[in-house]
Amino acid sequence: MLRKFFRIIMGTSAVLPDAKQSPAVPALKIIQKERELIKRESQVGSTLFGAVPKGHSRDFFCLDQSTWVWHEQWIANDGKTNCNLQIRYEFQPRGVLKTIDGVYSGYINGQELTDLISAIQQYHKRVASEVYGYQLNYA
Fold it and tell me: What is the pTM (predicted TM-score) of this model?
């Protein structure tokens, strides 16, 4: 994930130890670090759409090269029911396919697509700064 980030942002690969090349860095540590970074990225992404309501948890992150995930969890008004919503946006050659809780919703367009692209741009800019300490200079 970090290598992907550096390729996107800087156009180069990150200089990170490779588990296959370096026996001193176990693969498990690399996996744990990637999970930690995804969690930190997700925390930044969760605030892109405003404050997270009390009693809610929210995640918005890049899962892989073509998939973005929005996940929200909360307790219903009855105080007992645990509610979840997961939306996946998969970038495909035909467009961006939206899946809600595992059910295909179709390809997005118009304002929804514009808003998603704007959120992704804000995400990249804030994650670069807040997680990795880089400043991106694009609109």
Answer: 0.71
